[in-house]
Design goal:
390 residues; alpha/beta; Aspartate Aminotransferase, domain 2; Aspartate Aminotransferase, domain 1; 2 domains; eight-stranded mixed beta sheet; four-stranded antiparallel beta sheet; globular
Length: 390
Amino acid sequence: MGLAGPSYPKRIYLSTPHLGGGELAYVQQAFESNWLSTAGANLDAVERKFSELVGLPAVALVNGTAAMHLGAKLLGIREGDEVVTPTLTFVATCNPLLYERARPVFIDCDRASWNLDPQLLADFLRRRATVNRLPKAVFVVHFFGQSADMDPILETCQRYEIPLLEDAAECLGAQYKGRHPGTFGDVGVYSFNGNKIITATSGGMLVSPHVGWVEKARFWSTQARDPDPHQNYVHSEIGYNYRLSNVLAGILLGQLEVLNLRVQQRRAVAFRYRDAFTEIPGLEFMPQAPYGLHTNWLSCFLIDQTRFGLSRNELIRQLEVSNVESRPVWKPMHTQPLYQGYECVGGAVAEDLNRRGICLPSSSSLTLEEQQFVIDRVREIHIQSKDRGC
């Protein structure tokens, strides 16, 4: 089938930064005070405000991957340890395990939320307990802005006394039964990458109910410099250059002021797509689990090729010709060349979501005109494909 159709005059991106207007004042304060590195008033303030938001002590880091790495170290993950993690996630969830030479064990997701399947986790840990081979930790990912079903996951982890790390990089602003995802386990991790709901252009946050762990992460993040009365550079542990800068902390302070608005805007984008596509066969909206608030960080749909008229990949190519960026749902980790050979429990659901899932432009700054163009193109592509018998 040939690729043709109207093209939008400017690129419609998948997920772009959306500044609120207050960020510049905080950045200007950093410049005026000359605190531009990894200390300063903005950094202190953003940790305090984030802690107030989620209800746990927090340390600001250079990105979410750094927070994942320090979280793994806080859980005591070392060479040879096995760690359970969802297979349907971005690679940054799992790579810190390889940093520490640990071994991931991948578990499939459920169709109700696209998150880690609680029953598969319970069954896996029960089998492992019978042979005295429990994993060192469990990682759970809150996928594309929706919380995993935490109650059964927590119950299972507590039963076997296994620590839990939550990768909440994609779902700041979401809720699970009135609480923030990322605050249920031993460590929670957030990201402020440029494509997230709020951004510092980069940045991450680590939270924990264990105050000492947060302080340990802060120590590691500044090269693990030991206290010394003579201000010498004394180091007794491996440290990392993982601390957020005071300048980027200023951007994040401004972004936190508009977090609730950004969530509302993302959800409005997703529901406009949902309502517009109601009568198009073969387009299934990402489930909205009943136990919490889904931010709809990305607006995702599953495509039934037979009913819709063409495959997910063909739709992505057609939209690309029209200057519209769209993406597949994440490629499962157990299918990645990097992670070949690691154990995976299930995997068919994640593979299906990756094969049929599409993420449409979801920016909170997406204009009604831009979104209507995307909606119209999807409709036109569907009609043309059916007419041509593709």
